[in-house]
């Protein structure tokens, strides 16, 4: 079984306007309400690709109930933990001449929640996969992810981590099957700017030596690079199309890798599907379908990079 864990979900309220007038009255030309959270997004794309998972998330109050209902409506199996007080945060995202966002704070989280999360993960075994994605809630102990991985380590599940900065550094010793920084996050991790393919390969290799088994670096329109556990390095293209939305593309890439890897037991095939799923998410104005991902996959080119 695949489990995705989202400790910091949000109800994302999108407002589309021609312009934003600060200090005045604004009229929008459209609005959307979406269940947000990186692990939730991974589970949603996995479902689209025909790979089932259980989405575990911490939610609170009425906004938490709305998120759970929305995720269930997608067909995703949920095992949400409802906190006794507070409300799951609302993020307001305004798209006008420039994009502006207000991210909510969310409910108070403390270490006492770990046993409750662990109850959801009791069935874990070595054949299972856990995806830990996104930031920690601002009110949570900074060791929460570390404590969680220490707790499940005895069951020896495979772990995929999609987070950044100090959180990533703390989790690398747990030998994740995959990490997926984008090129900006990779540069920020090392306090530098990625200058090109060789620079990315070098720094991805450092992350491998620090514990990551496979490192997938997304580069937007420039494609992506996968440094595989066996030492092979792959470079993949973006199939093209007009990008209409980048929200959730990285999460779709993680889901595509999981589905392809489990289907073929091969990281290169997982990589191919990861590119297709991410690209489909980027160009779709409506919900992504499995058929559309298959069409995108036909346009994906993956080549092995010869290393000096």
Description of the structure:
This protein is of the alpha/beta class. It has two domains: 1-21 and 29-170, UDP-N-acetylmuramoyl-L-alanine:D-glutamate ligase (3-Layer(aba) Sandwich); 177-308, UDP-N-acetylmuramoyl-L-alanine:D-glutamate ligase (3-Layer(aba) Sandwich), CATH 3.40.1190. The chain contains ten helices and 15 strands. It has helices at residues 38-48, 61-73, 114-120, 144-152, 165-171, 183-190, 197-209, 249-264, 267-283, 290-297, and strands at 2-6, 10-16, 30-36, 54-60, 77-78, 81-83, 90-95, 99-102, 129-133, 158-162, 178-179, 214-218, 224-227, 233-236, 302-304. The strands form two sheets. Strands 1, 4, 5, 6, 9, 10, 11, 12, 13, 14 and 15 form an eleven-stranded mixed β-sheet that branches. Strand 9 (129-133), helix 4 (144-152) and strand 10 form a beta-alpha-beta unit. The longest helix is centred in the C-terminal third of the chain and has 17 residues, at 267-283. The radius of gyration is 19 Å and the shape is globular. The chain starts with a strand and ends with a strand. The model has no long low-confidence stretch (mean pLDDT 91).
Question: Which terms summarize this structure?
Answer:
308 residues; alpha/beta; UDP-N-acetylmuramoyl-L-alanine:D-glutamate ligase; 2 domains; 11-stranded mixed beta sheet; 4-stranded mixed beta sheet; 10 helices; 22% strand
List the helices and strands and how they pair.
Blueprint: E1 2-6, E2 10-16, E3 30-36, H1 38-48, E4 54-60, H2 61-73, E5 77-78, E6 81-83, E7 90-95, E8 99-102, H3 114-120, E9 129-133, H4 144-152, E10 158-162, H5 165-171, E11 178-179, H6 183-190, H7 197-209, E12 214-218, E13 224-227, E14 233-236, H8 249-264, H9 267-283, H10 290-297, E15 302-304
Parallel strand pairs: 1-4, 1-9, 2-7, 4-5, 4-6, 9-10, 10-11, 11-12
Antiparallel strand pairs: 2-3, 7-8, 12-13, 13-14, 14-15
Helix pairs in contact: 1-8, 8-9, 9-10
């Amino acid at each position: 079984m695949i489990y995705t864990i989202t400790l910091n979900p949000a109800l994302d309220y999108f407002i589309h306007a021609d312009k934003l007038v600060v200090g005045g009255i604004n009229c929008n030309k459209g609005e959307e309400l979406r269940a947000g959270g990186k692990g939730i997004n991974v589970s949603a794309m996995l479902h689209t690709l025909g790979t089932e998972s259980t989405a575990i998330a911490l939610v609170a109050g009425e906004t938490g109930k709305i998120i759970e209902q929305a995720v269930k409506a997608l067909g995703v199996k949920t095992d949400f933990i409802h906190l006794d007080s507070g409300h799951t945060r609302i993020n307001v995202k305004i798209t006008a001449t420039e994009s502006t966002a207000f991210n909510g704070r969310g409910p108070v989280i403390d270490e006492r929640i770990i046993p409750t999360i662990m109850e959801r993960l009791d069935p874990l075994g070595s054949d299972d996969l856990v995806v830990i994605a996104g930031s920690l809630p601002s009110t949570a102990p900074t060791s929460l992810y570390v404590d969680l991985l220490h707790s499940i380590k005895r069951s020896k599940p495979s772990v995929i981590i999609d987070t950044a900065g100090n959180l990533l550094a703390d989790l690398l010793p747990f030998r994740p099957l995959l990490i997926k920084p984008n090129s900006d996050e990779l540069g920020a991790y090392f306090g530098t700017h990625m200058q090109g393919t060789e620079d990315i390969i070098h720094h991805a290799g450092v992350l491998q030596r620090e514990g990551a088994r496979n490192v997938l670096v997304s580069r937007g329109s420039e494609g992506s690079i996968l440094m595989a556990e066996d030492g092979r390095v792959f470079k993949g293209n973006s199939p093209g199309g007009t990008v209409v939305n980048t929200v959730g593309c990285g999460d779709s890439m993680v889901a595509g890798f999981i589905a392809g890897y489990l289907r073929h037991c091969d990281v290169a095939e997982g990589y191919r599907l990861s590119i297709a799923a991410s690209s489909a998410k980027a160009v779709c104005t409506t919900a992504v379908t499995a058929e559309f991902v298959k069409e995108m996959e036909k346009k994906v080119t993956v080549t092995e990079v010869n290393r000096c």
